[in-house]
Amino acid sequence: MHTPKVILSLCLAIGMAAALPAVGSTNELDGDLYNYKRGTSELDGDLYNYKRDKAELDGDLYNYKRSNAELDGDLYNYKRGGYKRDNAELDGDLYNYKRSKAELDGDLYNYKRGTADLDGDLYNY
């Protein structure tokens, strides 16, 4: 029979191998919400932090509309060169994001850019 040390070593080796992350593309889907990385853009977790150049949107939920930008959410931090943009509005609990014909709306979001669809609790982009 195997000694307890051998059995423990075997269990630890199997556990460590199972804990290693799978190698995949740079797009990641993680958890109830998401972790999305594309280039330098990063959307991560329950809250998110989105940076594009000097723009930063950070909070629970948001409403961001580009050109006549609107930021709408529970918590957020929006910076573009340190000033509020044009007629930016801050208001509400959920969010609605429109960039030309793109819409993000709801508890999480539905996002269409070209033919890409992101929809629901998790997403596939």
UniProtKB/TrEMBL annotation:
Stretch forming the signal peptide: 1-19
Entry protein name: Uncharacterized protein
Keyword line: Signal
Organism: Aspergillus piperis CBS 112811
Superkingdom assignment: Eukaryota
